[in-house]
Every structure is written in C-alpha cells, then in structure tokens.
C-alpha cells in the first residue's frame, strides 16, 4: 500500500523532510513505524509517540488503508 | 475572535479582542493565563523560538479540550489561542481565558486547560540558544536529544 | 500604572495599561484574575453596586498583601487594582496580575492575592437590587441584615 | 478625651453619618465600641469587627490618646 507520512519537530529533522510518500507492506501504524524508524534512525520507541491517521488519533494496531495520511507524533511541547 | 473556542494563530494574539468572547452578565470572575517566551530555559540563554503544529489535529484536539472544560467546570465560557511560527522574547505564545459566576471555577478551568493543552495538543517548541544551537523540546522543556 | 503594587481607582481599570508592570524577559507565565460586577447574587437580580473603601488603610493593607505575595511565591512581579465608587453590570471591580518563570507560581500567587484582598482589605460592597432595595454585603456575599 | 470616629458601610448607615467627634471616658477601642454600639444600636458584636487607630490596625485593648482617629471596621466584602 501507499502511505503519505508527515513528520514534525525532531522526527522531521531526523528524516530530513516534512513529508514522504512510501510504499509499504505494513498494515498497522506499529509495523509502519518500525519500518520508518529503522530507515530514518528515529530516536523514539513507539511507546513514546502517538499516531494519527487522516487527522485523528488512532491505536497502534489500527488497520491502515491505501493512501492513508499517517503521522507519528513526538512528545508535544506547546504552551 | 473566532466562533471556535480554540484557535491557532500565525500572527500576534490580541488579548483585548480575544477576551471579549468571555463576556457574560452573569459572570463575576475571569481568570486568564498567558505563556510568554522566556529568555532562558534549563540554564541556557534563549534568543527566540519557533512553534510548529500539526494544524488540523491541533485544532480538533484543542477544541475537544475546551468542550471538555466547559462541561467539567461551572464556567460561562472558555477560550484558548496558541501561536505558531517564529516568536521573540516576551511574545505571547498561548492565552487561556475562563469566565464563571465564581472564582473557584474560573481558576480551576483555566489551570486545567493550559495543562491539557501542553499535554495533548500537537504543537512543538524549537528553542534557539545564544550559543548558536537550537533544539526541539520535550514536554518538560528538556531537549529531545537528552532523552 | 503606578509605582505601588496595589492601588484603588475611582475610574475604569485599564488592564492593558496595568499589565505592563508585569512584563519581565525571564517570565514565562502570567496569570490574572478579574472580578466583574454580576447581574445576580444570592438569587436576586442586581442592577449596579457601589464600593466604599477606608482608603488609607486599604492602600496600606493591599500593599502589604502584595509584598507578602512577592516573598511567598517565585514570582517576578505582582499587582492589584481595586475600583471604588459606582459600578455597572459587567464593569471590572478588581484586577490581579502575577508574572513568574513558571505557571505554578503565577497561578498560586494570583489566587492567594485575590483571596487575601477579599479577606483583609477594608472595602465594602453595596448591591442595588432590581426590587429597589440595596444592602451592604458580608464577605460571603450574604446581606449584613441577615447575620 | 475627644475621638474622631469614621463609619463605613452598614455602620455608617446605622449611625446615620460617616464621621463623628465624640467626647468619651473610654481608654481602649473595646470600651469605646461598647459606648458607640449602644448609642447607635450597631448590629455587630466587637468580635465581628476589626479596629484601626490613626490608619493602622490595633488590638482591642490598645491605649487610646486624645484626638485619635478611631475606625471600627465591619466585615469586608471587596473583590
């Protein structure tokens, strides 16, 4: 399937981009994160992050669909 | 001033305008909180900072927090505005306002909202230091690199 | 804006002016409280009210409260302005502002100050009701006549 | 001795004046309050009030001086 991934903050710095389109066999955010974390050497274990699909928070075992927009969210620091 | 209770703003927050949404003839108490850009953090001199947001989700999550606050506390109205983009020392980064009949609820709602916004809304702070370095921060304002 | 931390004012409080005294480059947090004239109290419709103060002692006692707050909490600055005279529904009766490096101290100082001002400063509220009566209030906002 | 008394709020309403000059044999605020409370039928026992002399809070057994400004303060309701 093809996913559109957005990166923010330290993940964007590490990935070297704010966005990528990736073909992947991963069917859940958990598997997709394992793949991109290895590719970009992200410093966070998945349990430090939250994940959103198409603009809403989802669980790590959420079933992904082709063309989903997937965002792994590093710990926030607003305010 | 917006119809939404929570908004992200790329330009300076005008508290005088935003606070009008809290006016209510039955409200005897108004509590507000503002986060200002400090010139220091964790022992380092800070020159400026950038806030980055995942805007659609930040807007939804902020709105959810304020709706929850309106139900949880005996308030007349609650609002929050968060800046994104580049800010200088002294700039207003976030404003929270709550009006209520009594001060207990106004204070409690205001405090709860800023805590939840800092904990849940997908916004990230990148500090630029006097020594030329910069870095994204964790929620406790320690650098991402350290943990 | 005055050199004093506490002031009594016979004219409308301009929060935009007063709050400038709280600015500090090291302050990351600002908490404020405002008391507004409500249109109701204790089940009765209120039209307007008058605040009377024993001015010299109110000024001294207010100043003492703010000095105590400045020592008790990790704040950069604290201020309070209280109206006297005739006020209408929605008018600002009292404003408290506290700036601090962190929000815990800003909230705690702001809350403590308004509680102490209400408890200690010699100012009295006379409410004028829709039924034509009026009356001085106790600290708990019940009428003097009832207790 | 001669004292200048200021009245505020409900005490002013009850006394019918904001200020009076009174000759009295009372030497403390406690004795002076007993006298004026009886004269004006004030609704408060002394323990509900505070007392200030010449612009500063004092104890009820403070020694008064001739020409002192004495203020009995009803429970406050600012804020």
Task: Chart the SSEs and their pairings.
The complex is a heterotetramer, with two copies of chain A (79 residues) and two copies of chain B (147 residues).
Chain A: E1 2-6, H1 9-15, E2 19-23, H2 29-40, E3 50-53, E4 56-58, E5 69-73
Parallel strand pairs in A: 1-5
Antiparallel strand pairs in A: 1-2, 3-4, 3-5
Chain B: E1 6-9, H1 15-18, E2 29-36, E3 40-41, E4 44-53, H2 55-72, E5 75-83, E6 85-88, E7 92-100, H3 103-120, E8 123-129, E9 134-136
Helix pairs in contact in B: 2-3
Q: Which percent band covers the strand fraction of chain A?
A: 25-35%
Oligomer: heterotetramer
Annotated CATH topology of chain A: Ubiquitin-like (UB roll)
Identify the strand order in the major beta sheet of chain A.
2-1-5-3-4
Low-confidence runs of at least 5 consecutive residues of chain B: none
CATH-wise, what's the superfamily of chain B? Molybdopterin biosynthesis MoaE subunit
* Cα-atom radius of gyration of chain A: 11 Å
Cα-atom radius of gyration of chain B: 16 Å
